[in-house]
Specification:
- With 217 residues, this protein is of the alpha/beta class.
- The protein has one domain: DHBP synthase, CATH 3.90.870.
- Helix content is 31%, strand content 22%.
- It contains seven helices and twelve strands.
Length: 217
Amino acid sequence: MKYPITDESERESAVEAATVAVRNGDLVVFPTDTVYGLAADAFSEEAVRSLLAAKGRGREMPPPVLVSTATTLDALAVEVPAWAKALVERFWPGPLTVVCKQQPSLRWDLGDTRGTVAVRMPDEAVALAVLERTGPLAVSSANLTGQPAALDADSADDMLGDKVAVIIDGGRSRGEVPSTIVDATGEQGRILRRGAISLDELNEVLEPLGASITDEG
């Protein structure tokens, strides 16, 4: 079901519907600060499998995890380098995804992560409102694999409507470029995917720390 959010009452109804759907193990779609996202409970193996199946993906392409606060990173990851924390402080909430070593105690299965987790805090009020109620969500772009990422609710509905319980319609997404993905699992940072934040912007933060990032995106 599609939920518009043209006023505060509609927004509350949409957020609550998405929250209930996630808790029931269903998939939801909502706008982020980049493109529309397809979301599932990160701690439900069945829900994550449904997300991957909906997109036509296998376990070799695990979804990143969205969070509502930067402090959640410490609950999901270990050995986060100081330079990565500096990037998080500067660019969260925003279009930066950080790949870190996963907290070994986590009871979830996002796919073939090789002991890592990709984490981002989006700069989008509705997405954050859902995340505050649900906790971390496995989220991928709302599209079928190989198709362009959905920039509005109608596009997401056309591709995924029969697979999701709730679509929050926030109009056209504010950003058309995906997040920049940075590998923070080693001493030297690497860009794994070029996105909304440039290499120069990243290194501008890191230069005073004596650190830098290379671009392998």
